[in-house]
Amino acid sequence: MALVEIRDVYKSFQRDTQRIDVFNGITLDVDEGSFLALMGPSGSGKSTLLNLIAGLDKPNSGTITVAGSMVSAMTPSQLAPWRARHVGFVFQQFNLLPVLTAYQNVELPLLLTRLSKKERDERVRLALGVVGLDDRMDHYPRQLSGGQEQRVSIARAIVADPTVILLDEPTGQLDAKSSQEVLALLRRLNSEFKKTIVIVTHDAHAAERATTVLHLEKGDLIRGDAVPSLRSDAAAAAGMPR
Amino acid sequence: MKYLPLVLANLGRHKKRTVLTIISVALALFLFASLQTVTTTIASAANFGNARRLVSTNATGIVFTLPIAYANRLQAQPGVEAVTWANWFGGRYGDGKRFFATFAIDPKSYLEMYPEMVMPEEQKQAFLRERTAALVGKSLMDAFGWKLGQNITLQGTIFPGDWTFTIRAVYKPTDPQIGEDVVMFHHEYMEERLGRPGQAGWYIVKIDRTDRAAPIAKAIDDQFRNSSYPTKTGTEQAFNASFATMWGNVSLLMGTIGMAVVFAILLVTANAMMMSARERTREVAVLKTIGFGDRTLFGVVMLEAGVVAITGAVIGLGGAKVLYKATHFSGGGFLPGFDVTGSTLALGSAVALVLMVASGVVPAIRAARLPVISALRQVE
Amino acid sequence: MKIPFVYNWRSVLQRPASTAFTAVGIALVVAVFIGMLALANGFRAALARTGSDSNALVLRRGADSELSSGIDRPTANLIATSPHVALAGDGHPLVSPEVYVLVPLVRVGGDSTKVGNVVVRGISEKAWDVRANVRVVDGHRPTSGRAEICIGSKVVGRYDHAAVGDRLRFAGRNWDIVCQFSAGGSAFESEIWGENEQFMPVFRGEAFQSVSFRLKDPAAFEEAKRALEADKRLQVDVHRESTFYVQQSQLLGDILEFLAIVITSIMAVGAVFGAVNTMYAAVAGRTPEIAVLLTLGFHPRSVLASFLVESAIIAAIGGVIGCLIALPVNGFVASTTNWSSFSEIAFNFRVTPGLLLAGLIFAVVMGVAGGFFPARRAAKLPVVQALR
């Protein structure tokens, strides 16, 4: 069973009087330990797909299952704790709470658990160490560079050891050097720590680091580099084996 | 102004906030006007008084009476045209919670002395004719729901027992300073029932020329100075003024609260204005790109502050004026003639103006000074 | 699942101007609230302390105040013989027939029109014993037979010539001030006391206004009341002294409290609106942060609670400031006319810990009320839209 199973999902938005269809029956599996990049032009629905996986949004029809839980059927009050446990989310911007230090920002997801102060402290330091910012843990976001902020965000995304890490255009606001840092980190998380990562991006460099690249065009998935563990619905229709 | 639609559109963007702010301003100005009016009403009571009427009380204290025999001697005083008197009866009606004054009077001379008490002629005659008749002020009639011709029974506090009168006349004063919360009856009725001659609580004396008030007053007091019932005579105005001072610190209290209220509003509105200003940056930049000048934008922001302040002022101040006039509010009889004066309205408007300037000026300057480029960068 | 308190605390500090404005707005409302209730409190307290539970006050039937009452000597003597009257150590009844009048005295610093009607009470020697809360603090008690008076501590310094050793003039005579008395902050302190026999000839003649006596058995007040009121020779009403004076404070006390509530309510609405505006702006400005918190998995309830806590913090700050502003008013002497008795009474503003606490709670309630809808909006934030 794949870690994330997206089955026959339809999603549309209502904008004033117009209905905009984003997905028309999309199907996708994401295996554990994979590093998937979703690319596509703006408006193609990349972010929406991420939101659906995280349970931030619901499909009009179809199902989404993550680590055995049917996310698409859960209620908002069920989703909140679920998300805390299973999902690490990194945005393009607005990641950190400006009034909290890096340490405190990273600690946030752990406050939703029953860990003791000591246990939380251990994990925060660990996470910050992984992203290479343990010397800056008492800095406020305004004292960090863009790249450093994003790395702190990633630390926060991994600190609770979530099932899947989702990133929405993480390098969109960063300069070349910072982007490199971030992407190298992601690569390491995937190869060394075996984290499952789904990244939405239109940065080709980012896509390079991924093990699989999928293109979204007008709500349809088109494979980039095919890896046997993934398939699009075209392939599924053709009945190809996994 | 041609920018008014723009201003109104801006205000309409955050309808809730605009409405809330206007209501706060209105409420606070309403409160301000009310408190100021308490002060002005008390003060004006001190200024009211017919210049040709003098009031004589017992110099020992107002709780002491004067003999009725003084009436003739006062009448004989040079310069005195007419004399009347009244005595405080001290009556309660029902559970006694509603306070009002009760006077025993010499009906004919009293009504002549106070032409400001207006009533239909036949009611007046009915009252004069009947010894057990009562004359009641209109607002008191309304407060108790009494009807003309009704019998009312008062409990005497100073003169014990139940006292029954028939309401034969209802008066409305032409000057609001003359109390309406009064019941008046024939002093002869009281004398009859008590079996002894009455006493005068105070005398009212009408003089021929206003500039002779001081010498006549002195002459009266000189006459009785060494008797057992010495008098203290002064103009009606002075008499009313002394009542006004009985309020003690109250005026000061009201004034202080009024100021606190004004300050509080200033803060609330200024706060609201400044907050919207912060969100303003994007549009201001766009407007400047289109070609709106710095000065124009300054004006637009000030106008916005102005609309809020003026609307609040009209509702709050106007509301106070209308409300008190329409309900004939008189503070349970303690504040007769309670009316928001022109000066209070002017003062309130000045406050609104200060408010407008104070809350608009900082955002207005900021908008005027905003360098377009940096603002546009934020927009992207 | 709590959002850390430090987040709210620091966010409040992040916008100092906005927080300050709202807090001061709330502070002013709280200050007025405390101030006005302290005024009403002080007035009621002064009167409540005046009467004793162990004393009874006898007035002519139907009289609603000491001023409108009249009791002649025979009646007073009869009351003194009642078995319900306690006896002093010397075997004499603890009974005090008293004259009660008002005289106009010129206030300090005012012209002759600025007079206050001060209570002048005629007493006998026993009065000092019947009224246990009164004691001479300076000078000596008036000597019998002399035109000597004793003034209450709230009279001192507020009227011309009102000082021990000076001389007051009223009722056509000069009176030597030989002492000053205190009475536990009660209404008596606004009075002037002198010998009955000195006052009667210059005032109302041979009649007292009231008779006070110590109840032999305070618990048996009802019985004493019934006995005396039923006595056909007397025609009197008997009141428990404490109750009577509390009633005398009813009218003005109610008015002051009513005013306090009306005025502070209106101001409170304004302050709440201020809080609402502040919080709406706070929420609007922090939409991204809220989105992050919701995404992380914090429950919308926690977000709601978090913003409520924030507005409560601002309000609490305002409440403390308000208490601090109002505090100095404690002990201030205010004076006005108690319309029930027509007499001028001076009393202290009385700020109690209970009042301060009420003020703080009031502040927090205002803050939470103001913060509720904005907080709800934060909690209901559609995350997806916010992330766009």
Structural features, described:
The complex is a heterotrimer of chains A (242), B (380) and C (388). With 242 residues, chain A is α/β, with parallel strands linked by helices. Chain A contains 8 helices and 10 strands. The longest helix of chain A is centred in the last third of the chain and has 16 residues, at 176-191. The radius of gyration of chain A is 18 Å and the shape is globular. The longest helix of chain B is centred in the last third of the chain and has 34 residues, at 294-327. Chain B is built from 14 helices and 13 strands. In chain B, a hairpin with a 4-residue loop joins β8 and β9. In chain B, 55% of the residues lie in helices and 18% in strands. Chain C has 12 helices and 14 strands. The radius of gyration of chain C is 29 Å and the shape is elongated. Chains B and C meet through α2, α9 and α10 of B and α2, β3, β4, α8 and β13 of C.
Radius of gyration of chain C: 29 Å
Quaternary organisation: heterotrimer
Low-confidence stretches of chain C: none
Instruction: Classify the secondary structure makeup of chain B into a structural class.
Output: alpha+beta
Largest sheet geometry of chain B: 11 strands, mixed
Number of strands of chain C: 14
Query: Kindly state the mean pLDDT of chain B as a whole number?
Result: 84
Cα(first) to Cα(last) distance of chain B is 32 Å
Distance between the termini of chain C: 26 Å
Globular, elongated, flat, extended or rod-shaped: what is the shape of chain B? elongated
The H/E string of chain B reads HHEEHEEEHEHEHEEEHEEHEHHHHHH
The proportion of residues forming helix of chain B, as a percent range, comes to 55-70%
> Quick one: which chains have the greatest interface?
B-C, 56 and 63 residues
Biggest beta-sheet profile of chain C = 10 strands, mixed
**Number of helices in the DSSP assignment of chain B:** 14
Element-by-element helix/strand order of chain C? HHEEHEEHEEEEEHEEHEHHHHEEHH
- Tell me the Rg of chain B in angstroms: 30 Å
* Helix percent band of chain C: 40-55%
What is the number of E strands of chain B? Answer: 13
